[in-house]
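In the previous chapter we treated chains in isolation. Here, by contrast, the input contains two separate entities that must be folded as one system, with a combined length of 403 residues.
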Amino acid sequence: MSQGPDGADTHGFLGEEFLTWLWFRWEADGGEFTLPGGRVVGVALDDFLSFAAPSDDETEQTLRRGLPTRTAEARTALRQGRRLRKARLLVAEGSRQWTAVLDAPTLTLGSVKLPDDSEECESDLDRTTERSANWFALHEIVQALYGRFLRERLRSDYKQTAGTEQARWMAT
Amino acid sequence: MATIKKSGSFVAFHWDGAIADPHAQPFADAMAARRFRTIENAASEEVSIGWVTPADPTGDSFALEDLEGGAGTWLRFRMDKKTMPKKWLQIHRDAAEKARGKKLSARERRELKDDLMEKMLPRVLPSITLVDALLFHDKRTVLLFATSKAAREAFGKLFLESFGTPLERSNPLQAGLRAGLDDETRYALEHCEPVRWPNAQRGEAGVEDRRRTLVDRRAGDDQEATMEELA
């Protein structure tokens, strides 16, 4: 593998901002995104959140089970300006639904559960073909969402526009 | 035929340049050249890493149809590791020290270890790890179904040795550089700094009002410092 500075070290914060932005978009706009190619996907946060420690000396905060996004602890963390480091996502496209834990600094997807095999799958090859497509679809959806986040985040007027909106949301 | 898993974790990698077409024989030949070789009977502590197929975990055959993974190509590699159990070594060392009535020197410990390994390792079976990956040739993307550093490094090395091109692990920078951004946005990505979100608790009550007042006051002006100022 290629050597050199790891983008997870230099730009891991962008992954955390991306995950926090997904939460913001879910609460502000319902979490529905139209991606390139016209595909419409829905994203929501599920039952696991972990906030990044603001510095090496401070505590990472993890909330599990129930509806952690609704808890006072989660709102307090947002008000303190903390970013999400990990969260379990629900991703849906049409009748397909995935769950996965996104590790934001590396953009690694863990604990993924693919949609159920469709009834048309009659052989092992059918199942492998469908699952293979579902693995790649999840990867593509997350990449497309990340691309969309970047186009918003890297605009020169971000802080005056979407950034301000998100700051307000975090403070509520 | 086996079925690819429907749950788990993965790391995405990308490559630049060209590799052999996974539907053509040279691809299977490249895997066969770095096939898995057994260390079952090895008399030394070692690791063996190489390609196998989902249909044949021995590494003896590489039929193209065994790599069939629908939209992707189903790769599998095998890592066998033969190690002397540490507790076993400790028990023998304790016994030797008890018999002698004093601690062994560093040199004696090393000699004891070498002696034990020579006798015991041929009888130790290796631990076996099978790791899957899905390769999407057109997208120059491979999803590796393992996240450990050892598996990632082993896979990267094997891929390079087999197909002659290095893999780049996806991360927030790499994913951004592959997101089709224009030049200006790519530059902004490479030089991007974290947003310092406001710490609303510092201001006690009325923080939100204070933020809104500031935002409103600055509306239409240069708000570059807004969020930092609120922090």
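Chain B has three domains: 11-83+128-170, 86-120, 200-230. The CA atoms of residues 179 and 186 of chain B lie 9 Å apart. Compare these points with the single-chain example from earlier in the chapter.
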